[in-house]
Amino acid sequence: MNPTNHLAGLLMFILVVFASVAIFFYLIYCRWVVMRVATPINRFDRIGERIKAVVVFALGQRRILNSRFLDAGIMHAFIFWGFLVVSINSIHFIGRGFYPDFHLPFLGDGGALQLFYLYLRDIFEGLVLVMVFYALFRRLVIKPSRVTLSADALLILGLICILMVTDLLMSGAKAHQQLEISPAGLVVSHLFENSSASKVANVFQICWWVHLVSFFFFLDYLPISKHFHVVTALFNVFFKSLEKGALQPIDIENAEHYGASKPHHFYWKDILDIYTCTECGRCQASCPAWATEKPLSPKEINESLRDYIWENTSTIVRNRNGNLDELSLKGDPMVGGVLSEDILWACTTCRACEEACPLFIEFIGRIVEMRRHLVLEESRFPKELVTTYKNLENNGNPWGIGASMREEWADELIAQGIPVRKMREVEGEVEVLFWVGCAGAFDDRGKKITREMVKILNAAKVDFAILGQEESCTGDTARRTGNEYLFQMLAESNIETLNNYKFKRILTQCPHCFNTLKHEYPQFGGKFEVVHHSEFINELIQQGRLHLKKPVTATVTYHDSCYLGRHNGIYSAPRQILKAIPELNLVELSRHGSNGFCCGAGGGWMWMEENLGSRINHNRVEEVIELQPNIVATACPFCLIMLDDGVKDKGQDERLKVLDIVQLVSDALEE
């Protein structure tokens, strides 16, 4: 029954195979060229960790099976696993076109392994069909808001269905002719009970050609569709970022451009990310900007950039060895045209999109690169940042208060007889350098936290000191709003100051300071051991250096800071602290942990006004109010400010308090 047993069939088969494979590799080559001309970045380190990620997250589909999207996850996982199982059958199918008795080792001798595979193949072909029909039902009937109904998706699902059905019909035909016996083949063969051998052979040949053409059409369609992730997904997981907290630096002195205004300005991994997007919409469903009616959708950023790159791929390929900066590309400018400035500035850099993406697509770096272009090359940024940048340049803090006032809170405590040492007065090494941060030194609510932190440090007999007026902003706001020049200036100044003193660890109370000092200062030679106060206090409790004896009778919920949680993976320490406080009842918000919802302050939004959509902090506070706790606890001064403002805006400040975990620990300390 093999159609290639005669010359005409064999020639047609060879033509289809070689033409399709040539088209596929040409399209892959074009996609690869765009990556090759992009900015280099090293993603070949820590190979063992990368292989493990592929096994767990790509082959094991761990992120796909996230409980928030479990139904879609199960559907996709079985289609993916079915693809892996059936791909062996596809190798047999193509191989037998050239050589009728072709088979992979141990899968064609009629032995137990072949029988096992045939059972497995049949099971997964059935499962894939069921999941394809469910996928169609979701798209056409359920219609989740995060999923875009497109002809592209329907075509792919249709092709998968055709491939499975034709393969099952061929199995039935072979079983009818006693050529190959498989469980599904025996079932399907009943369709041919009253058919002649020639009719069954005709059905087989029709299904064979339909299967062949569908398979290679599917193959050639992948590089020009959103389903290109079938090819790129494993690579994207392998090359994922292993360091979540840090942005890439710019070589200010030698850079030919600042930020990204054209596709080749992105890192090659950014291009791979864009190719790999499945349009599943999990990023969009998790995005606080999208949830509050802002124009930013991470999914649509990928779609827009992908379409822009594809539109200009032929131009880039033709000029791949020339000066791409001088190249005129089709369509609107990438920054400000393809992606509006409102889209780029709406991001809070909370990392919810990256945490939700099953294929580890990175968004924040790309957005910040385009912000860098706007700020450093075009001088186009929200007007509020004019004041913020000026304050950072002139006073070393975004509040614009003089550096001499940075240790005023400490002088007040010293006047009350409470010891607070300053590093410039210390001889030798201290156990802890307490990095107070701008909010902790200048904001009234932040200063309350700082005073209570000093109380805790003294209670635990920690040898600590502060930099005082020598401390300056770490530069988190400058870097994440695209002003890399200002960030590097602040970072280098702070590193120089820190290198003048001896200490074992830096203790921070702001997750933004913590993240910048820990992950980004090493890029400029500032390698220090950094700990956030949540981990440090928990450590003191575990060591028996802090004794929480006084009860705090309250129902408390904890709001996860994005830069403590998703950027640094610190979820348990704050909760362990709260659970250690007598009579405190800890209850969880529906969006908590890695699924927590942003307060709205990150990415520079602490200093900008939300003029589009509703306010992110209001969205979060409404969720808190619905839970009805007495206290919402934070471990971030920015979160505290945003939530406190939201509670007041909602008229709930008499009933609901917003406190840092430091304040609750201080209340629970034995006298």
Adjacency order of strands in the biggest sheet: 2-1-3-4
Q: Count of helices?
A: 27
Subunit arrangement of the protein: single chain
What Rg, in angstroms, do the CA atoms define?
30 Å
Describe what you observe in this structure:
By secondary structure, this protein is mostly helical. It has 4 domains: 184 residues, no CATH class; 115 residues, Orthogonal Bundle (Fumarate Reductase Iron-sulfur Protein, Chain B, domain 2); 145 residues, Rossmann fold (3-Layer(aba) Sandwich), CATH 3.40.50; 115 residues, Rossmann fold, CATH 3.40.50. The chain is built from 27 helices and 8 strands. Strands 2-1-3-4 form a 4-stranded parallel beta sheet. Strand 7, helix 26 and strand 8 form a beta-alpha-beta unit. Helix 1 crosses helix 12 and helix 3 packs across helix 4. The longest helix is centred in the N-terminal third of the chain and has 31 residues. The protein is elongated, with a radius of gyration of 30 Å. The chain starts with 6 loop residues before the first helix and ends with a helix. The mean pLDDT is 95.
What's the short story on this structure?
With about 675 residues, the protein is mainly alpha-helical. The chain has helices at about 5-35, 45-60, 70-100, 110-140, 150-175, 185-190, 195-220, 230-240, 270-275, 280-285, 290, 300-320, 340-345, 350-355, 365-375, 385-395, 410-415, 440, 445-460, 475-480, 485-500, 510-520, 535-540, 570-580, 615-625, 635-650, 660-670; strands at about 430-435, 465, 500-510, 530, 555-560, 585, 630-635, 655-660.
